[in-house]
Specification:
Blueprint lengths: L13 H14 L6 H18 L10 H13 L11 E4 L7 H7 L4 E5 L2 H13 L5 E5 L2 H4 L9 E7 L4 H8 L3 E10 L4
Parallel strand pairs: 1-2, 1-4, 2-3, 4-5
């Protein structure tokens, strides 16, 4: 197609995606450039393609991907300043890390315990041609002992990984003094 990629599962054209995404993004008082929207559309298609080979997300409806993955991930933009380093703990299929990276210049680390999932995320970020993003393999409760990661991030975020008590134990050690931990869709 005109964007140079295809997906057997996606039926939404970019124009439809962009219209729906822009409308939902406006509801949370955010906007995206056309280039950012195109990258998110490409991300959705690559994700759906990979999801046929490996279960990355149970959400495969394009409208739900827009609202439950992309817009939800971008709700935390207001907490992230330009020079902040971000770690996405338990990134899974790259949420919220990849959507954040697409719209921000910040350094983002996608952290997960499943290495084969991180290999997929490396492939996705390469195909999206986004820089200043990396993957980190490990368990949150062990990796924070490494001085390279402990208290090194301005923002630690996580989405639907565990209850708040456990999530706080997993994420707070990565946050530097004065930084923030932002939980999305946390189990209370």
């Amino acid at each position: 197609d005109e964007h140079g990629y295809k997906c057997a599962r996606s039926f939404m054209r970019f124009e439809e995606f962009n219209e729906e995404f822009t409308k939902k993004l406006n509801e949370i008082n955010n906007t995206c450039s056309k280039d950012e929207s195109e990258k998110l559309f490409k991300y959705m298609n690559i994700l759906l393609e990979w999801n046929e080979k490996m279960n990355l997300t149970a959400i495969t409806d394009e409208s739900e991907i827009i609202s439950k993955h992309f817009v939800d991930s971008l709700t935390i933009l207001k907490y992230i300043k330009d020079n902040y380093k971000v770690i996405d703990v338990g990134t899974g299929a790259g949420f919220p890390g990849i959507p954040l990276k697409i719209v921000l210049e910040n350094k983002v680390v996608l952290f997960d315990s499943l290495n084969k999932r991180l290999k997929v995320l490396d492939d996705i970020t390469e195909k999206l041609n986004i820089n200043n993003i990396s993957t980190l393999h490990g368990r949150a409760e062990e990796t924070f002992k490494n001085k390279e990661y402990r208290e090194k991030f301005d923002i630690a975020t996580s989405r639907a990984v565990a209850n708040m008590a456990v999530l706080s134990e997993f994420c707070l050690p990565y946050v530097k003094v004065g930084g923030s931990f932002v939980a999305l869709n946390c189990i209370l």
